[in-house]
Amino acid sequence: MCLAVPGQIISIEGEDAFTRSAQVRFGDAVREASLAFLPEASEGDYVLVHAGVAISILCEEAAARTLGYLEKIQ
User: Fold this and answer.
1) Nearest to 55, CA basis, from 73, 31, 39, 71
2) Domains and CATH numbers, the chain
3) Is 26 strand, coil or helix?
4) Do the Cβ atoms of 11 and 47 come closer than 8 Å?
């Protein structure tokens, strides 16, 4: 089963739409994610990341709710 996880963008690198990437905070961990599908994403946004690619922008409440669900199933 594949799972997408919410995280917060802390920095963005690159300006080309296909190669932009972000440093995304997932709790205590920070990982790189491609922003190729989300050219409108900006620092501070919460994004849903699947397989290293940000696939959706979330509001803070939705991100917190999703993290709560994930904690319950661990």
Assistant:
1) 39
2) 5-73 (2.30.30.140)
3) strand
4) no
pTM of the model: 0.89
The position carrying tokens 């409440």 is 61
Contact partners, residue 52, CB within 8 Å, separation at least 6: 31, 32, 33, 34
9-44 tens-digit pLDDT = 999 999 898 899 999 999 899 999 999 999 999 999
Length of the chain measured in residues: 74
Among 2, 38, 1, 3, which residue's Cα sits nearest to residue 17? 38
Q: What is the pLDDT of residues 47-57, one digit of tens each?
A: 999 999 999 99
Element (H, E) at 67: helix 60-73
CB–CB of 21/14 below 8 Å?
Answer: yes
